[in-house]
Design a protein that fits this description.
Blueprint: H1 12-15, H2 19-27, H3 34-50, H4 58-72, H5 82-101, H6 114-124, H7 130-133, H8 137-149, H9 154-165, H10 170-177, H11 181-209
Length: 210
């Protein structure tokens, strides 16, 4: 493509081309240009993926996100920007990860350690136990939450993680997943109730065993 004196790229425009320019180059046949987008957004996508899939699956899922993005480039539209478009692909790839692995089932309480069940009982009880909660509360809470989230459907799981773990608004979560706001709200209500029931059941079982 020939450039006139007025529109020839110079300086930073050559060293740091805009996302849309790189996309245009790729669609026009320069497949190697895609590596620039991978390098630019690898950490951004990895951070999204790491919040939704097991640690040992992050790298494979990350590659899947960029593969899907590459294949979808001919359909890419500039509305919202490339970064926003890529975050949608990342979220939906994580959703598909769990869809492929999901089987409706009850999670056995035995999969929780005695320490986890003790933490649950203490947290859910009426008695205050600040000293116990202050002992590794983040680790205990996250491990118990991971256990309980495993019982959710892939869609309920994604809704809960996007809103409560990532801090996105209901509207943002709906946009990422292509769902209605009402649909997200229903999934949030259902997932919260499911988690509460699971945690209460685990705590009660520990009291019976004790």
């Amino acid at each position: 493509m020939a450039y006139g004196a007025a529109d020839a790229p110079v300086g930073d425009d050559i060293q740091n081309p805009k996302d849309e320019e790189i996309v245009r180059q790729i669609v026009d046949g320069d497949v190697n240009a895609f590596e620039q987008l991978v390098e630019r957004y690898r950490n951004f996508v990895a951070a999204i993926v790491a919040r939704h899939v097991p640690f040992d699956q992050v790298e494979d899922t990350l590659q899947d996100v960029f593969l899907r993005a590459y294949r979808s480039l001919p359909k890419y539209r500039h509305d919202g920007g490339f970064k926003s478009w890529l975050s949608v692909i990342a979220a939906r790839t994580c959703y598909d990860f769990w869809r492929e692995r999901y089987k409706s089932r009850e999670i056995p309480m035995s999969s929780l350690s005695e320490q986890h069940r003790e933490w649950l009982e203490t947290t859910l009880s009426d008695r205050s136990s600040a000293a116990f909660y202050e002992h590794n509360p983040e680790r205990e809470a996250r491990e118990v939450l991971d256990w309980a989230i495993g019982a959710l459907s892939p869609a309920d799981r994604m809704a809960l993680e996007l809103v409560y773990l990532e801090g996105r608004s209901v509207k943002e979560a709906a946009g990422l997943m292509g769902w209605s706001v009402a649909n997200v709200k229903v999934r949030l209500f259902r997932s919260r109730r499911r988690l509460q029931n699971l945690c209460e059941a685990a705590a009660k079982e520990r009291r019976r065993e004790g």
